[in-house]
Structure prediction request, 302 residues.
Amino acid sequence: MTTKIIMDTDPGIDDAAALTMAINNPSLDLKLITTVAGNVTVDKTTANALKIVHFFGKDIPVAAGAEQPLIKPFEDAARIHGESGMPGYDFGTDYGKPIDKSAVEALRDAIMAEDEVVLVPTGSYTNIALLFSEYPEVKSHIKQIVAMGGSFSGGNMTSAAEFNVFTDPDAAKIMYNAGVPIVTVGLDVTLKALLTADTIEKLGKLNKTGEMLHGLITHYNDGSDAGRPMHDVNTIFYLLHPEAFTTKDMWVDVQTDGPAIGATVGDVRAAYHDGKTNAKVCLDIDADAFNKWFLEEVSKIK
Ligand code: BDR
Ligand code: CA
Prediction:
């Protein structure tokens, strides 16, 4: 049985790798890709999503989304992902166009067309917050949200905040309080499951997809030569191999102002919300299994 998914993304090198895995795994049926400003501006994240879809010769619709966060001024991460957001591989100039619908309209239509769909955001959650505000009826059609973002062990923007949540904390707060089950795939796991130098070297020799990903990853300014985090890919690994993760159910909320803006805060003792939870938080991961799976997945492509 296949799982129907929708990815909301800001490619971005690790987003590109996550799209690669989602597009090519036969257990996943990727219905729609929506884009958001994040790692680079939304015109670039949209072009980059289209480049990946075109690289694999697929006909998956891409809809362009929010140009900026709900309230907070936009800050990109080009220092990590390069000015284009996807340097290191020449995708050419012929990669098509986004569909003639906004991300929010496309999300609404795609979600309402299914009884059950999994939403996989790997950028900031602006499109999702707008969607839930404008079309709350979609919520009952979403089985779960498997979201890269947040941290319960220190941030990568400030000591408290992870990039996707920091980029649009107001949207993150809306998403966490929407009443839809969320799996939080944050830095607690993504910084443990580093792609090792050995994995990256082997990747480049596998096939055309491996060459493409190797080109991108060797232009990625996150991590170090000892290992590079593939944050967003952990969402797809979770969907396919939840047994590789240690999780804890808790109530999660988001700080939207002050020095800890963008921090995700978990009610770790279930003390403040009458024992209710809104998220399954990934706290540990089998990093060796992630590296092994990553290479195996790519070796099956082309
Ligand atoms: C997140 O920030 C982005 O730079 C990555 O693509 C990932 O989604 C990690 O904090
Ligand atoms: Ca991302």
